[in-house]
TrEMBL record:
GO terms for cellular component: large ribosomal subunit. Belongs to the universal ribosomal protein uL10 family. It comes from the Bacteria. Part of the ribosomal stalk of the 50S ribosomal subunit. The N-terminus interacts with L11 and the large rRNA to form the base of the stalk. The C-terminus forms an elongated spine to which L12 dimers bind in a sequential fashion forming a multimeric L10(L12)X complex. Forms part of the ribosomal stalk, playing a central role in the interaction of the ribosome with GTP-bound translation factors. GO terms for biological process: translation. One of its GO terms (molecular function) is large ribosomal subunit rRNA binding. Keywords: Ribonucleoprotein, Ribosomal protein, RNA-binding, rRNA-binding. This is Large ribosomal subunit protein uL10. It holds the Pfam family Ribosomal_L10. SUPFAM superfamilies: Ribosomal protein L10-like (SSF160369). Gene3D superfamilies: 3.30.70.1730, 6.10.250.2350. InterPro entries: Ribosomal_uL10, Ribosomal_uL10-like_sf, Ribosomal_uL10_bac, Ribosomal_uL10_bac_type, Ribosomal_uL10_CS_bac.
Length: 175
């Protein structure tokens, strides 16, 4: 049974709202996945903060109109699911990449990042971006390194003086 006009409008509105707040989007072909596999994919998407939706292409085109994902409309053909990263730019790409390793039926088709449409081969690049926590820890390590090196160097001066005085003392006691 098909969807009513009201259901279609609600779906377009829902996807449009998500698209306005999303950071990146990945479209993937899901032909060949079983219902159980799709349920598992949806569960993983919820855990990772990814909005995942199977939408008819005509409705998806209306939903992304006026957003930075509007460039996706030219690539919407065939049975596709849309995955929107809401918190972490690489989350949707990592979800599709990881799930497609175990399920060959799922294949990434396009990626949208910063209002630009990229081919499927860019999914790996986007998926390899560090998460927010990883990026912050790398930044903090980079900021901490010069201070730690300075403290180590400054601590080495009195230590070297103490070792020199101990060597002079030992030389005088031995003589």
């Amino acid at each position: 049974m098909g969807q009513s006009l009201e259901q279609k409008k609600a779906m377009v509105q829902e996807v449009s709202t998500v698209a306005q707040n999303a950071l990146t989007a990945v479209s993937a072909e899901y032909r060949g996945l079983t219902a159980q596999q799709m349920d598992r994919l949806r569960a993983e998407a919820r855990e990772r903060g990814v909005y995942l939706r199977v939408v008819k292409n005509t409705l998806a085109k209306r939903a992304v109109a006026g957003t930075e994902f509007e460039c996706l409309t030219e690539a919407l053909d065939g049975p596709l699911l849309l995955a929107f990263s809401q918190e972490d730019p690489g989350a949707a790409a990592r979800l599709i990449r990881d799930f497609s390793k175990d399920h060959n039926a799922l294949a990434a088709r396009n990626v949208v990042f910063g209002g630009t449409l990229y081919a499927a081969d860019q999914v790996e690049r986007l998926a390899s971006l560090p998460t927010r926590e990883e990026a912050l820890s790398k930044l903090m390590a980079t900021m901490r390194a010069p201070v730690q090196k300075l403290a180590t160097t400054m601590n080495e001066v009195p230590g070297k003086l103490v070792r020199t005085l101990a060597a002079v003392r030992d030389a005088k006691q031995g003589a």
